[in-house]
# Entry
Amino acid sequence: MAGNLLNITDSASFSKSLQAHPTGVVHFWAPWSEPCKHMDTVFGQLAKDNPQAAFLRVEAEEVPDVSETCQVAFVPHFTFFKAGKLVDKLEGADAAQLAEKVDQHIKLGAPMASQPPAAARSAAASDTSLLAAATSRPDPTSTSASQPASSAGKGSALQQRLEQLTHAAPVILFMKGDRNQPRCGFSSRVVAAIQEADVPFQTFDILSDEAVRQGLKEFSDWPTYPQLYVDGELLGGSDIIEEMQASGELASTLQEVIRRGTPSTAGTVAPAAAANGHAAAAETQPLQQRLQQLVSRQPVMLFMKGTPQAPRCGFSAKVVKSLQEIHQPFGTFDILSDEAVRQGLKEFSHWPTYPQMYVGGELLGGCDIILEMAQSGELQSSITEMLPSS
# Structure
């Protein structure tokens, strides 16, 4: 860790650190936020590149007085100080904009000619490995990053290629590097998680193909890498995979997919199996009806791992705490107790992870959305607006 990159745990050390440096940048973050992790890599590199300034990391929920003083509504949130006074801020995960503001406030008027072209900064905003393109001379090999994201639109050649790639194997990981030589810590940890599950899988190095690297973000509606696809469907990124690994869900999910895809089950369908297909289709409707009843069982329903008294994962615990803090009554369903609901609700809601909160029978969101609303003070009003009027 760079000597000027400091973790702040109280308001006194916050003030002392800013007073000790003529300029400073503060990253307000939260451990549950994937964009914060993405931006933290950028923040660390900028700290190394600018040793004359203080770069402070503040866990927003753990140092609330500092967060309130800096008017932090959601994370990631960056503030810029000169002579101990707040002079600018940046909200959201925009690596290129962060690099520009550091140039503006820390490097004290760096000439505009030194700024890279917009295409390179756009690439840096969506992927931390291109930070150099956002802070130094552009790399001629990165010009393909300037192609519009719409090139991955429906029906395009790239769309068709991405469709084929995501179905290239029952389990395929789009990552930086390959399984033998991962090029980032997130990719390395996901590779290790899949290997622990003891299933065959393929990898695709997104650093080797800029069109895939940019296009897959729009295709999957997921802004970061790695991305794990199972049976052609996005399972999630680093945070989701690691959470599933910790709960034991990853191994069972991947092993089930591999079992379904083995030659003994993926070959010619036997007549009995063909007949059973009608029964399987008939079973779908009762599950759909049951899910509809469950999500509407109480005005506010939280589908979580465990119970409010004993949450089985940190994300569920945080959402429970957010609801309790606003004194909102809610019902819960432990998805670990019912595999049919656990798997079926993901398709029902088009939301791949838990917890999930429903209000008036409609999905409000998952952990990130609920905690953002709680931080901004919008959670109670959002729930009230979604509840049917009496």
